[in-house]
# Entry
Amino acid sequence: MTYEEALAWLGEAGKRGSVPGLERIRDLLEELSHPEKDLSFVHIAGTNGKGSVAAFLTAVLSQCSYKVGSFTTPAVFAYEELFQIDGHKIPQEDLCLHLETVRAAVERMEADGKDLPTRFEIETALALVYFEAERCDIVIWEAGMGGALDATNVIPHKVVSVIPSIDLDHTEQLGQTVAEIAEQKAGIILEDRPVVYLVKDEEAREVIERTARARQSQTRPVQLDRFTLDPFMTLLPNGRMAQLFSYKNYAEAAVTMLGRYEAENAAVAIETLETLSDWGFYRVTKRAILAGLPLAQLPGRFELVRERPNVFLDGAHNPAAIRALLESLDYYFPSHRRTAVIGMFKDKDTETAADLVAGQFSQFFTVTAPGERGLDAEALAQKLRERDQKVTVMPSVRSAVEEAVRVTGPADAVAVFGSFSILKEAREGLNAKK
# Structure
């Protein structure tokens, strides 16, 4: 199987859509002799912040000389981003090799008349086969959507479950209220294993606490009354800009990911790392945590990819993430002119998104996000025009970014956001102009 053949086969599997449930993934793992059984996991489910928490955990644990697998979605710039060890993407030859194994198992399922797995279920199995083959010490394991019925919830050996946030997203599949969504996210909590969470909604917190009590699981909520974010940036000895925060007895902890929300995500990571230390990962010390946090990087999350003007790529695709993006822009560019390039999926809360961004940018360039889920750029523009915004419909992401850069002053900012799916073309366009 070549790399191109692998992607084509996965594309065919993608036509089966997204179907909640664990029966298919269990059947698939049975065919693969259960690669998950000898692995230990940190399972992360939540609305936003999953990828950032995963990046912080990977950076610290790798610095502690653990071999760290990570399965996170979505892939933003390269498909292989989904499957990483110690922050390095799976080599294409390894991807093809292990996908051959998974494909053979799927073919056996088909021959037995069993329901075929979805693409995400195949990717979940592929990750497990890869991490087992590489004998990872710990796997950072991000849920795709929801929790209870998500394919990732098939794993038996969770050291700790993590819920960084709960807000409205995927409401058609998960529920119309934050409390209903919390029921799905809390489904990852395992009997007699701890759960770390940062959830600000009172009803959602009660759901997590109630579920944990029923499963005799220890809760470790992030203690926001012991969290302080330094209002100023600092320059680290390696020349990188960082934001400082204090959490519990961690004074002046530093993170180099620029979003103002990242310090809270780092606090979630600290609470998780302390839990791992309590459960046998003894190399995780305070010193290791403070040294590892600034090393974490995550593409497509308030990522500065150009200066003069400053261009940020951000996968903000739901109301909570858009609020977080605007908070960061307000901090870094409180009195500057800001331009937006925005493309969204049809199944997102585009009305609330339009309400949030109205008045926050001097002008908008709308694009159609790729794929069947992409909202037509003209339809998105109309929503913004209804809110008296200045909008131009663009034929492509690349042309939109080029025009946004052209009309934005050198000290000002361009934000490209709305869907992770538009970020790759945006970066390619910027790189081509260098």
User: Anything to note?
Assistant: The two ends are 36 Å apart (CA to CA). Residues 92-111 form the longest helix (20 residues). The chain is about 40% helix and 20% strand. The mean pLDDT is 93.
